[in-house]
Design brief:
alpha+beta; Cytochrome p450; 5-stranded mixed sheet; 3-stranded antiparallel sheet; 19 helices; 12 strands; binds protoporphyrin IX containing FE
Length: about 500
């Protein structure tokens, strides 16, 4: 009888929505959801299975928890799931979604992504800008040298380095030139932290659209404030560039042949063809670079340093490799990066255990589809729970152990082709900055670990507690004390 009824239901109503917890009227499951969304979703997967639904206010969310179903979403039906869940906060900071991260799959997104990946981050441009990165990292080493014996906040030093590297790549400037520019680095750090914090908050305006105009929690208001500050920074940099009316970087001949991002973007400004960009699109793209590029990478450097310091064996092997590849009478250059196989594996292992976007950047179904035998309605929000898959004992031996060795054996890469490991996402919405992120991550880590010995302050212990947000952060920042590792002090100048 039961089977007959099921068949009847199926033939009349079609496949059902995925299973999920009971919800209250209007608010749905919202009152029961804790703040650590990724662990909540992982726990719920144990009860409801590899795909489950969760009603949050008026928003229907579906959470995917296995590699097989990730493949369905990001490869088999990639097109259908290639829009973003555009929250009020996200739209407020990206000129209404005119950037790459937040834009839906449309003409604007395709054009910006193509320019970013194929022109700004082309192999040629990345290679030519290698000296920018090496120079900025060298300055960081000099700064840390001046702090020997005192406490250094690793995330902050990584963030400052990244800001310097990126501003240098974007507009050929460095944030440590002159007092005004030094403030720019600090300003970007504060802005980026604020934006990340606001992104991470559940916004009632998104879950109950009828309340949106009241902006009850003030998230939209606060995000707009951050947006205005960022916009002012971009306006002043663009104005300077237009006034100077020069296409040379401040280093003149030093890096001949290389173009900074602004030069590339300005050459497309208000053209008559389809590659044409507006000034707003340029600023939206700069927002992505300065926000998506800094917080993610700096946080990963922090998780990696903490993990290496906590595991004596890993530290020993990293140092041995650096001594062999770089040499104790030398400093790290970008040319060493591909040869540092064990350090590369260490970064991959860090991104496995601490993927900075544990639920990726949520997507939205462009049309109704089927996943895992269930209906996914149009406009449904999709979370891909990468953190749960990265720690699932069905796919990883001793998943909670920090063991870079596994990436020397399995040869998994970060291109999102194996759906049990995809820290940068997968499919057409995969991180557009992977190539740059990997270079910067390894260069910064290698330099910090090659030039200094690191210890925790007396009485401190490692703590790996996580805080969920736009970026998965270490709840307690890693603060460590550097000492000189290389005997020749000239290597720190
Ligand atoms: C450790 C460093 C980084 C990590 C772990 C990371 C991770 C991610 C993830 C998970 C996504 C969403 C992918 C998806 O939805 O499938 C993403 C998107 C994106 N990331 Fe990154 N990212 C990093 C660094 C960077 C850097 C350095 C840049 C640029 C300078 C960048 C630019 C972008 C952009 C533009 C997108 C949007 C792509 C799109 O929607 O088409 N990211 N990133």
């Amino acid at each position: 009888m039961g089977i007959l009824w099921y068949k009847f239901k199926l033939s009349h109503n079609g496949p059902s929505l995925p299973p999920g917890p009971c919800s209250l009227p209007i608010v749905g499951y919202l009152p029961f959801l804790g703040s650590e969304l990724h662990t909540e979703f992982t726990n719920m997967a144990h009860t409801y299975g590899p795909i489950f639904k969760c009603q949050l206010g008026s928003k229907l969310c579906v959470v995917i928890n296995t590699p097989e179903l990730v493949k369905v979403v990001t490869r088999d039906q990639d097109e259908a799931f290639s829009d973003r869940d555009q929250t009020t906060a996200a739209l407020s900071i990206t000129y209404g979604g005119q950037d790459i991260v937040v834009s839906n799959n449309n003409e604007n997104w395709r054009k910006l992504r193509k320019i970013f990946v194929h022109e700004m981050l082309s192999n040629k441009n990345l290679e030519a800008s290698g000296s920018f990165r090496s120079n900025e990292v060298r300055k960081t080493i000099k700064t840390v040298f001046g702090q020997i014996g005192t406490t250094v906040n690793i995330r902050n030093i990584a963030f400052a380095t990244l800001t310097n590297v990126l501003t240098r790549m974007v507009w050929g400037n460095t944030s440590d030139k002159g007092e005004g520019n030094r403030n720019l680095g600090d300003e970007l750090d504060i802005l980026s932290s604020n934006i990340s914090r606001l992104f991470g908050r559940v916004n009632l305006s998104d879950l109950f659209p009828s309340l949106a105009r009241f902006d009850i929690q003030g998230i939209e208001r606060d995000m707009k404030k951050q947006h205005n500050k960022l916009d002012q920074i971009f306006n002043s940099i663009i104005k300077d560039r237009i006034e100077s009316n020069t296409k040379e970087t401040p280093d003149d001949g030093e890096h001949e042949g290389k173009k900074d991002f602004l030069q590339i973007l300005f050459s497309l400004l208000d053209q008559k063809d389809t590659t044409s960009l507006s000034m707003t699109q340029i600023k939206a793209l700069l927002t992505d670079v300065m926000i998506a590029g800094t917080e993610t990478t700096a946080t990963t450097v922090e998780w990696a340093m903490a993990s290496v310091m906590h595991n004596d064996n890993v530290m020993k092997r990293v140092k041995e490799e650096l001594a062999e590849v770089v040499g104790l009478d030398n400093i790290v250059e970008e040319s060493h990066v591909p040869k540092l196989k064990y350090l590369n594996a260490t970064v991959k292992e860090t991104l496995r255990l601490y993927p900075v976007s544990p639920l990726l950047v949520p997507r939205r179904a462009r049309k109704a589809c089927m996943v895992g035998g269930y209906t996914i309605p149009k406009k449904c929000t999709i979370f891909l729970n990468v953190s749960s898959i990265h720690r699932d004992p069905r796919y990883w031996d001793n998943p909670l152990e920090f063991n870079p060795e596994r990436f020397l054996i399995n040869k998994l890469d970060t291109k999102g082709n194996d759906f049990k490991y995809f820290p940068f996402g997968s499919g057409r919405r995969i991180c557009a900055g992977v190539s740059l992120a990997e270079k910067m991550l390894i260069l910064i880590l290698a330099s910090l670990l090659h030039s200094f010995e690191w210890t925790l302050p007396k009485g401190e212990e490692h703590d790996f507690t996580e805080t969920f947000g736009a970026v998965l952060k270490k709840t307690n920042p890693l603060v460590a004390i550097p000492s000189q590792r290389l005997s020749d002090v000239r290597l720190y100048m």
